[in-house]
Amino acid sequence: MTPPGTPAMKPSFDILIKNGLLVTLDAEDSVIQRGCIGISNGVIARIGPEADFSGAAAVKMLDAEGGMVLPGLANARARPLQPGPGREEAGAGALPALARMIRSGSTAFCCASPRAKELCEAADEAGMRAVVAPMVTDSPPGTDADGFDLAEELLERCAGHPRIRVALAPHEPALADAGFLHRCRKLSERSEAGLVLGLPETLKEDASARKRLGKSPLARMSDLRLLSPRAVVSPIDFLDRGDAALLAASGATAALCASGTRACAAAAALLAAGVPLALGAGPGAFDMFFEMDAAAKLGKAALLDPTALPARAVIGMAVAEGLRALMPGPSAGRLSPGCAADLIVLHAGRPHLAPLYNPFSHLVYAARGSDVRHSVIGGRLVMEEGRILSFDAEHTRDAP
Question: Which runs of E-coded beta strand occur in the chain?
Answer without folding.
Answer: 13-23, 31-40, 43-49, 58-63, 68-71, 73-75, 106-113, 129-136, 164-166, 169-170, 195-198, 231-234, 253-257, 277-280, 343-346, 372-377, 380-384, 387-388
